[in-house]
Design a protein that fits this description.
Length: about 280
């Protein structure tokens, strides 16, 4: 998201800061007169509409959560946008049930890593992820609550691999970031009554030909979603549900960090598709 916004391809919602960054960890400096449940000096994490690439940020109390005591500042900063986006796609929209199978594309991205862990937390049977290298697939499999299966999309047809893993039944849920280039294989990989949530369209804005018969026959549900375009009320309710259900389950993990003065290098690493998981920029 930050890279797309920097390049002019992700317009910010009206009235929102054009400063990059939608998540952070930090300490409360001031409280609004009607805010309850928090106190000055409290360590928190937050989901913002923008403005997190800064020393100070102002946002609604509904988008703030207590910082887990077992996590460092760096580890905690990786939670809000990644996990809440994944939570919305997997749990709120797709209504993932225990025992169902999930396919997660861009598995080594920040949201992909979060989706892997949430799928396991909610009892998914097979959590299948796609990535571009063996190193990334090993990382996803070996992390806490990691994937059960990995597919190298550069060497394997993920729809065929899904069929093998699920005995030809397909997956119940797909989380996709790619769009047109994966459309046909995604539809083939879905089970009957399957759900697909599209969180980005990295291969372009249009699918040239769509076979509606497959959607009808399989009774598929396809939905696009961007968390940033949601209302403050929706985000606050989602944050509360996420924290109530998941707030006690976070574990520390090793994350790549850059100094504030090296933010350009952090963006270059993401653009080169070298990162595994979240990259954190430390402001000091």
């Amino acid at each position: 998201m930050d890279i797309m916004q920097r390049k002019g391809g992700y317009p910010v919602p009206p009235g929102v800061s054009d400063i990059l960054g939608v998540e952070f960890s930090g300490t409360i400096e001031e409280l609004g007169s009607e805010v309850s449940g928090f106190e000055v000096g409290q360590e928190v994490i937050g989901l913002a509409y923008g403005g997190a690439y800064a020393e100070y940020i102002t946002l609604s109390a509904g988008n703030v959560m207590p910082k887990p005591k077992n996590l460092s500042w760096v580890e905690a900063a990786a939670i809000p946008e990644n996990f809440i986006t994944a939570f919305q796609a997997l749990i709120s929209i797709s209504e993932l049930k225990s025992g169902e199978d999930v396919l997660i594309h861009a598995g080594a991205s920040g949201v992909g890593v979060a989706a892997n862990q949430l799928a396991r937390l909610y009892g998914a049977k097979h959590v299948i992820t796609t990535a571009s290298s063996k190193d990334k697939l090993d990382f996803l499999h070996n992390m806490p609550k990691g994937s059960t299966h990995g597919v190298n999309y550069r060497e394997q047809n993920f729809a065929e691999e899904v069929a093998k893993i699920t005995d030809g039944q397909g997956v119940n849920v797909i989380i996709d970031f790619i769009g047109p280039d994966y459309w046909d294989k995604n539809i083939d990989a879905l089970a009957k009554d399957g759900r697909m949530v599209i969180l980005a369209s990295m291969s372009g804005p249009e699918v040239p030909k769509v076979n509606l018969v497959k959607l009808l026959y399989k009774r598929l549900r396809v939905q696009g979603s961007t968390l940033r375009s949601r209302s403050p009320e929706y985000q606050a309710a989602l944050v509360k549900r996420f924290w109530d259900e998941c707030g006690s389950h976070f574990q520390g993990e090793e994350l790549k960090t850059y100094k504030w003065t090296e933010v350009a290098e952090a963006h270059k690493e993401m653009e080169a598709n070298k990162n595994m998981g979240k990259i954190i920029v430390e402001i000091s």
